[in-house]
């Protein structure tokens, strides 16, 4: 029986997890860890798959509907005997036999999650329900990639995991932030009611190679604009802050959370905090000093400040980010220049 450590968030009596498949004790049992990654063709998911595939004991199954992800992100694994890719929408049930589930499937960029808000909420609620049902049937441990958006426009700064948030339930971002809040609730209800082993990561703004060029998120926008020689569009007022985590640090944090004994929720992010104006100035200085910085209209309910308190991640996972923004941006620039076909001048 797997031990489930409490971290103070796991209220009430917890049932033991369901018995894993009898194959686990079979004579010819193959010791590989079968890992499902939903949303594995996306930005963070594909980097996670790369890291999981480095371990020869892992078999990785990706399911994705390619709404914002792309097969291109995974092409180096096509044909690999430990890798499988399935076109599937998580709002439909899925029958696979796995030991762990990293549940990432959900559009993450505001322009994409607002494009079809009803589908976004279905993905968060029905998709998470389906993955929890799968975890229950096969006795798998499941990790949800939740978000700092569960804190809404936070009135507490920096945000620690005990803060319940300040979220507009009927706004244009609600399909995503309220959707993730329900997904977290479902995770804890399955944990308490059915003994499922759960892990919840609250991810703060993550950036790195493979983000969609027209993704709409701020780091990818600014880098694409700087590489193309276009003005950097700072949405007003520009004093709003974010904290940016490089994707390799994020993947490391997610794997530590999955492998550790704490349910979470645990903030995973880089506490270095920047205004959007500071970010634009840094991108301009590092990538293209000739570009202009302009102010453009913002979207409703944009959080005014965001910075993770990562005390819990440090203490419980022994994790903290290693890559500073000034070191991460040039790594992303290389990838964007290659995909945009714009070489460096020097
Ligand atoms: N990148 C960030 O800054 C950030 C911050 C907080 C939380 N997160 C969370 O991390 C996860 C991954 O984010 P990302 O930045 O890699 O985004 P992404 O858009 O690149 O990846 C999401 C993936 O999920 C797939 N997907 C979407 N809906 C699906 C559905 N119904 N069925 C199957 N697949 C579906 C997409 O096609 C895509 O491949 C998301 O759950 C997101 O909410 C990301
Ligand atoms: O980390 C998180 O929890 C969340 O962060 C982001 O949401 P957001 O912070 O709004 O991301 P961006 O769209 O990159 O916006 C960041 C800031 O940059 C500003 N911005 C964006 C784009 C742009 O061109 N210019 C610009 O100034 C926005 O107004 C906002 O204040 C992600 O897109 C969510 O998926 C994720 O869950």
TrEMBL record:
Cofactor: NAD(+)
Compositionally biased region (Polar residues): 1-13
Known role: Catalyzes the NAD-dependent decarboxylation of UDP-glucuronic acid to UDP-xylose. Necessary for the biosynthesis of the core tetrasaccharide in glycosaminoglycan biosynthesis.
GO biological process: D-xylose metabolic process; UDP-D-xylose biosynthetic process
Domain of life: Eukaryota
Pfam families named among the record's database cross-references: GDP_Man_Dehyd
The keyword Lyase belongs to this UniProt entry's keyword annotation: yes
Pathways involved: Nucleotide-sugar biosynthesis; UDP-alpha-D-xylose biosynthesis; UDP-alpha-D-xylose from UDP-alpha-D-glucuronate: step 1/1
Source organism per UniProt: Trema orientale (Charcoal tree)
Protein name per Swiss-Prot or TrEMBL: UDP-glucuronate decarboxylase
Entry keywords, A to Z: Cytoplasm, Decarboxylase, Lyase, NAD
